[in-house]
Amino acid sequence: MKFLQIIKHLKLQNKKNALDNFVNCRTYEHISNINKLFLNNFSSTKEHSEHGQVKHENFLNNTLQYGENSQNGSTNNLKNGKYNMYVSEGNVNINEEKYKDNNISSNNTQYNNNSSNSGILNDEGPLWKEHIDDVVNENKKKKMNRFYLDSQATTMIDPRVLDKMLPYMTYIYGNAHSRNHFFGWESEKAVEDARTNLLNLINGKNNKEIIFTSGATESNNLALIGICTYYNKLNKQKNHIITSQIEHKCILQTCRFLQTKGFEVTYLKPDTNGLVKLDDIKNSIKDNTIMASFIFVNNEIGVIQDIENIGNLCKEKNILFHTDASQAAGKVPIDVQKMNIDLMSMSGHKLYGPKGIGALYIKRKKPNIRLNALIHGGGQERGLRSGTLPTHLIVGFGEAAKVCSLEMNRDEKKVRYFFNYVKDYLTKHLDYIVFNGCQINRYYGNMNISFLFVEGESLLMSLNEIALSSGSACTSSTLEPSYVLRSIGISEDIAHTSIRIGFNRFTTFFEVQQLCINLVKSVERLRSISPLYEMELEKKNPSNDDIPKFIWT
After folding, report:
1. Which of 255, 314, 404, 474 is catalytic?
2. How open is the CA angle 49-51-54, to the nearest 5 degrees?
3. Residue 474 known to be catalytic
4. Which intervals hold domain Aminotransferase class V (predicted)?
5. Per-residue confidence band for 480, with pLDDT thresholds at 50, 70 and 90
6. In terms of C-beta density within 10 A (0-12 exposed, 13-18 middle, 19 or more buried), how is residue 49 classed?
7. Residue by residue, what is the 3-state secondary structure of 330-362?
């Protein structure tokens, strides 16, 4: 809403300049009375056709088209390097020699966008900034000196997603289940289009396979409780579930709840890389096993499980396979057909969409997968999740999935570069550091590092202008060491020294540089006052024979 409030005070004469004016807005104190925004702009955001049907154009239409109209300063802003990210339908020119040591291709790249304009990226900016439209320019980030690098907790909503949502938050307000008038039909079509976008992202086959929920937590609960209670009612002997010790809390707590209802749960221990062994899963399957559930991308250490082989094993043994893909959807390629995934949970705000919306994928196959509903009421979502659908959130979720389908490869190259840059920088400037989790089979937007002899919470406090975390956002309020790190064999002392860094689509190289510089400074300062670090140095390089020797266990 703050975005809308700011736009209200810009006195827009030309909507194509809205974003240009937005990034120039320096004060926020005078912003108030959001309702006037819609009154002032309502006439310019819709028109009525001869049949009385509303045709809307987004009142931020073309605001992300920077490459035209030099009289109003857009082109000049590009030449001055005002926007750190830029996408157009034209060619993007990169100074090839300047970035010759980058792993990302520096060839001219063709980008498709709704814009009919074209422009050239300022070659003064680094190659890793050649990405998508961004409403926050790097100069303002430098002035703010506050950086967000906790992308596993949540992600910024993409401006294109917000633009798609705005009409459904204003004048397209019909209930998607009101099927006797145009307002309902319009909302219903938007919901079905969003389902299609999600299916395209994961290679689903039928719109009925997507059930919208409030988020991944509800999706996980619906999958586990719904499946287990239904099939246990058909056959009382079916009461066994297989999962791992490094699942998200909502999976572990749901399994513990099912244990109180008489179900048996096997918690498999991963190896030191955080990967669950296929043989362990195979040996755990029993005649009474109903389903197996394994996280796709771990939310704390970023490792990617061997989902395809797990899915094939579950299909061979005739048990259902569920995966929590809230950290994977839109970030790594997913093919539910090839991977034999029966149920999959997704979250909107983890892939640059809005909060409060998620989905559960349920494969349509014979015999049909059946499960009990957790929420009862009007029978929406095939009776599995009753309640009026939040059309604007669903539209945003669907648009975020669509954008991810188009930009996943570029996003992956960008975060991989940042991952390698931070890893090389820290390895060069610091000792006694551990990079947790498998460094190959992983999502590179997630980085978990242990800085020995430095308390993780103290390190976070010393970096209070940089948003990081010491583990899952769902458990970071406690001072207990990460159960994920403990499960992969890391000692409690080292687990307490760990922090998690999350890169995303909007992360800039300036932020990564500042992270590295401040991390090194803070770690060196905290170690300088650490007696444990001093003792380790003395043990390693004793100055004389009288210094006592310390043996670490």
Report:
1. 474
2. 50
3. yes
4. 148-515
5. confident
6. exposed
7. CCCCCCCCCCCCCEEEEECCCCCCCCCCEEEEE
Contacts of 539 (CB under 8 A, 6+ apart): 549, 550, 552
Containing H/E element for 219?
A: helix 216-234
Angle, alpha carbons 535-538-543 (nearest 5°)? 150
91 near 109, Cβ under 8 Å? yes
pLDDT of residue 247: 97
User: Whole-model pTM?
Assistant: 0.75
Residue 464, pLDDT score:
85
Q: Look-up: residue for tokens 């809390």?
A: 249
Query: What domains does the chain contain, in order, with CATH numbers?
Result: 1-63 (no CATH), 167-403 (3.40.640.10), 409-540 (3.90.1150.10)
Question: For residue 139, what pLDDT is reported?
Answer: 57
Neighbours of 70 (CB within 10 A): 12
pLDDT for the residue numbered 5: 53
302: left (phi over 0), alpha (psi -120 to 50) or beta: left
CB-based contacts of 177-185 (< 8 A; 24+ apart in sequence): 177/378, 177/380, 177/388, 177/389, 182/53
Distance of alpha carbon 322 from alpha carbon 295, whole angstroms: 8
Strand arrangement, sheet containing 433-435? 433-435, 446-451, 498-502
